[in-house]
Design a protein that fits this description.
With 448 residues, the protein is an alpha/beta fold. It is 43% helix and 8% strand.
């Protein structure tokens, strides 16, 4: 039997073939190992990223929960103590006569009526306001000036009645306050304006009831808040009819009128019942000197007058206009009322000689536009400072017709000529209510 012997070259060829296969196998293994290394690195990186994301999510969830808790706390805090603000300029928004005549009891009744009226209006027109919302009321006015006007117009028999009224008003409700701003131009306006702005930006304040219908000056304030985000939070309270400039803004705000609470008309200072019937009748010139005053005095008490404004405060201890004469019908100025009153009532006897009544409004110095101007006064500053501390009665020494008995200021001081000039300068620091339109020849106040 013979064996087939493979040639040498064939063996070498087979070895080379086997060697090539082994090479391809090694290359495949190397490639697979490289792929495994790459995937392992990717896995490790992704694992680290996942751990980081997991940690971040966990921290984010904790932070979110903390923020939600904070929001709940803030919402709870902001929803705590909700209130509506009632801001009233008491110099023109005056309560009904019958309420004020009753003094302290009337004040308590007025506070209760106002509280009930606000509650009813909120329930009917503002259902979104919480039911536990409290009512914070502030009335700002010149108490002394208001009391004098009410007394001289015959609304009350005693000046102290108005003080009693507002004491009862303040004591009736914990959050109801009357603030006496004293004498001074725009004192009530400034306080009300700042409190209005403060409450409008206060999250706890859900609404503002604003009693200002008598004063055009508040139009400047309301013009700043005509955006819907503000107008929906403001309600204008009407007492006397809205003045001209406020009427232009009236349509942009909600308005309400509380019947039997505030006076719907303006105070008339003229009251013939305060004068003795034996007094001589005023002259024809005083009754019908112009279309403004041309109304019989027998009908004067029924005439619609200018709204009460506070007596302007003096910058010195001397008195403000305490004489407050009775107004002529349809009077448009304090000056004309004083002229008419001088003819109705004889001034009380005083140690000082009476001033001549021959001075008329024609003698008042005016510029080419018809505006009243005050003659210059030369004074000594040292004398002025000394006179300020004497508490002299301006009306007695400068007008000679102080009607207060007893008067709280000095009538008996023997005043010198220089002191009288200084007192006149002090009185002029108080702006006249009627400004350069004043036509009272005896007016002692400034007319700039």
């Amino acid at each position: 039997m013979s064996l087939d012997i493979m040639p040498d070259h064939a063996l070498h060829q087979r070895f080379q073939d086997l060697k090539g296969v082994e090479h391809h196998k090694n290359e495949l293994i190397i490639e697979l190992l490289r792929r495994i290394d790459s995937l392992s690195n990717d896995y490790q990186q992704m694992s680290l990223d996942h751990q980081r994301e997991t940690q971040f999510n966990r921290e984010g969830q904790l932070k979110e929960q903390q923020l939600k808790n904070e929001i709940r706390k803030l919402q709870s805090f902001m929803s705590r103590d909700p209130f509506v603000s009632v801001l009233i300029d008491g110099d023109g928004m005056i309560f009904e006569d019958e309420l004020m005549r009753r003094g302290e009891l009337g004040g308590k009744e007025a506070a209760t009526k106002l509280w009930n009226a606000i509650k009813d209006h909120m329930h009917e027109k503002l259902p979104s306001i919480p039911s536990d919302c409290r009512i914070v009321t502030r009335i700002y006015a010149n108490l002394k000036g208001l009391a004098e006007i009410c007394y001289k117009s015959g609304i009350v028999e005693r000046i102290n009645t108005i003080e009693d009224f507002y004491r009862g008003f303040t004591g009736s409700k914990i959050l109801f306050d009357f603030v006496d701003v004293g004498h001074g131009k725009d004192r009530a306006d400034e306080k009300i304006t700042e409190l209005f702005k403060l409450h409008l930006n206060d999250y706890h304040c859900h609404h503002i009831y604003f009693g200002c219908s008598h004063d055009n000056g508040y139009a400047r304030l309301l013009e700043q808040y005509t955006e819907p985000t503000h107008t929906t939070r403001i309600t204008l309270v009407e007492g006397v009819p809205f003045e001209r400039e406020l009427k232009f803004l009236q349509s942009q705000f909600s308005c309400v009128k509380f019947d039997d609470l505030f006076r719907p008309n303006k105070i008339s200072i003229y009251n013939p019942s305060q004068h003795p019937t034996s007094q001589p009748a005023p002259s024809q010139s005083a009754r019908t000197s112009s279309d403004t005053y041309g109304v019989p005095l027998s009908q004067a008490q029924n005439i619609y007058q200018s709204p009460y404004q506070p007596m302007i405060g003096d910058t010195s201890p001397s008195t403000a206009p305490n004489n407050a004469p009775m107004m002529n019908p349809k009077a448009s100025s304090w000056a004309s009322t004083a002229t008419a009153a001088a003819q109705l009532v004889s001034p009380p006897a005083t140690p000082t000689p009476a001033v001549s009544q021959s001075i008329s409004s024609k003698d008042i110095p005016r510029n080419r536009y018809g505006q009243r101007v005050d003659p210059p006064v030369v004074y000594d500053k040292e004398v002025v400072n000394r006179v300020r501390n004497l508490k002299l009665c301006n009306v007695h020494f400068l007008r000679k017709d102080c009607q207060y008995d007893p008067c709280t200021h000095d009538h008996c001081y023997k005043i010198t000529k220089n002191e009288l000039t200084s007192l006149r300068s002090i009185a002029r620091n108080v702006p006249c209510y009627f400004g350069n339109e004043c036509d009272d020849p005896k007016c002692i106040y400034g007319h700039k």
